[in-house]
Amino acid sequence: MRQTMSNSAFVTGCSGTQSFTISEMIEVNGTGAATNSVAVNLKDIAGDAWKYRNKVKDANITSATAVIRQVHGDNTATSVAGSASLAGGGQSAVFVSGNANVAVGTVQQGQNLDTTGGIIKSALKNDGALSVSYTATPTPAGAKTHITVEVLIDVEVEWSAF
Q1: Structure pTM?
Q2: Does the structure show a pLDDT above 90 at 6?
C-alpha cells in the first residue's frame, strides 16, 4: 500500500482549507468479478484537516481517477467494467465507474464526486479510518483479471473555529 500526501493549506484568522491526495495501489486478482480493498487512515495524510477535524465545515472530492499501472502475466481479461469506491463510518459511495481496456496507463475518470465528501467529513470527525476498493468484472465473461490499479482521490477540506 502506498499513500502519498500532496498538501497545501491556506489559513486566515480562525479558518482555513487543506488539500491532500489519497493515493492507493490496489491489486485485483480473481476470476469473474474481483474486488480488493485497502485501508486508509486520514490521521496519516490529512495534515491540518486532521488537526482541525472537530471544526470541519465541509469536505469535497475535487477529482478522482483510477489508472491501470500493471497488467500481470496471468491476466486473461481484455477489458473490465471497473469501479472504485470509498467507505467509512457506515457509508459508501462509488466515485469511478465504467469500462476500461486492460492496458497499462488506461485511465477512468471520477463521477458523482458530490456523494463522497460526506464520507471524508465523517471520517475526519471520527477515527480517520476509510477503505478504498476497486472491483473489476472482466470481458470475456469468466476471464481472470489480474491488474494493479492506482486510485487517486483529491480532497479539499474547509474548517472554521466559529
Answers
A1: 0.88
A2: no
